[in-house]
Amino acid sequence: MIIGATSLMAEHCARIWVKDSPVDLTLVGRSTQKLEQVAEDLKVRSPHSNFNILQTDFIDPIAIRALIDKFFEIGTVDIVLIAHGSLPDQNACQDNLVDCHRELLVNGVSPVLFAEACAFHMQQSDYGRLVVIGSVAGDRGRKSNYIYGAAKGLVTRYVQGLQHRLADTNVKVTLVKPGPTDTPMTAHLKSKNQKLASVQDVAKLIVDAVDRGESTVYAPRKWGLIMMIIRHLPTIVFNKMNI
Length: 243
Hints:
By secondary structure, the protein is an alpha/beta fold. 52% of the residues lie in helices and 14% in strands. The longest helix has 29 residues, at 97-125. Keywords: Oxidoreductase. This is Short-chain dehydrogenase.
């Protein structure tokens, strides 16, 4: 299952998964039309795979629980990828609490609710791989994107706790922390000549990390070193940086 299947990063992960052998893949999103477009593209790439689409509300905890419960009733689930999110305008979130509230829900609370619903079933069956896409922005709050970073910081702490909870089980949980990646979500960064990672390369890193059962993967991997430095910068130095 891919939750947030219309995101470009998720779509490229799906293309890798269907490349070598047929799969049963359920695509979850908010727009049935967009989900159908993704499913049609994947069907061309893998005619013998089985694709299902599910439309749901990404904020309502009752709807999330009902969808996940129904999905796990079907049978054994190998992988769940939680990939949805948005990149908000920091200034807009500062000025408008409605925007701020929405972005915290979409980028932080919603992925956690989906993951918690999935973890319940995976722990019961003692099987499965749960993959949650966070962000390098969650490693340290910065003035340029601290609302988004706060939401992704929530995801990071949640996944760490979930990994601790499931450490003695056969359920593997992977947290993915992408750096800026060339997707529609970051189009405004590209227009500012900021260097962005290829979405194809990031998707491959995600799939490879899931195969190896890694707990945390930075994508590209250089961001692990970059964020380690940023996390450990003294406050007096960090506060002088325009980042």
